[in-house]
Amino acid sequence: MTGLTPYLSLPGTARGALEHYRDVFGGELVLHTYEDFGRTDGPPDAIAHGMLQGPVELFASDAAVASVGEPAEVPSGVLFALLGTADPTTMRAWFAALAEGGTVTDPLQRRAWGDHDGQVTDRFGIRWLVGFHE
Predict the structure, then answer these.
(1) Which end of the chain is more exposed for a tag (fewer CB within 10 A), N or C?
(2) Antiparallel, parallel or unpaired: β 80-83 and 127-132
(3) How many Å apart are CA 126 and CA 134, to the nearest integer?
(4) What is the pLDDT confidence band of residue 1, given thresholds at 50, 70 and 90?
C-alpha cells in the first residue's frame, strides 16, 4: 500500500457497501466475518474486516455492538476525492453509479477552469468528489 486508504466503520452495512463499491469500481473483495475471527462482540455473519482491492481501494467493517464502545462512524466534513483516477467515460459511470440510491449534491459538470467535477452522497452516507480533465 502506498497511500491513504479509507476505513469505514458502518452500522451493519459493510458487506452491502463493499459489494456495491466493487460493482461500481471493479476489483476484488476480501471479507472476514466476526465468526472467521472468533469474535463474539457482533453477529457472526457481520463483517469484522473487509477490503476492496482494485482501481479504488478501501476497507470497511461493521461496528461492534454498542456495549463494546465501537460506534459506527459517519464522516462529517470529509469527502473521498476521485480526481483524475480514470478516463472521463469511467468517471461519469462511477458518478452515476454512486448517485443511484444516493443524493447528487453538485451535478457532474464542466467548470469555469475547464475541468469537470461533481459531488454525490451515496446510499451509505459517504460523500464523493468525482472529477477529471478532458
Answers:
(1) N
(2) parallel
(3) 26
(4) very low
Grid cell at residue 4 = 491513504
Collapse the DSSP code of 40 into the 3-class scheme (helix H, G, I; strand E, B; otherwise coil) and give the result: coil
Across the chain, mean pLDDT equals: 91
The H or E element spanning position 53 is strand 47-53
CATH class entry, domain 80-132: alpha beta
Residue type, 73: E
Q: What's the average model confidence in pLDDT over 45-60?
A: 95
Q: Of residues 70 and 1, which shows the higher confidence score?
A: 70
Residue 6 CA to residue 10 CA, distance in Å, equals 12
Q: Where are the domains of the chain?
A: 7-67, 80-132
Query: pTM score, two decimals?
Result: 0.89
**CATH 1.10.3470 given to domain 7-67:** no
32: helix, strand or coil: strand
So what's the pLDDT on residue 63? 85
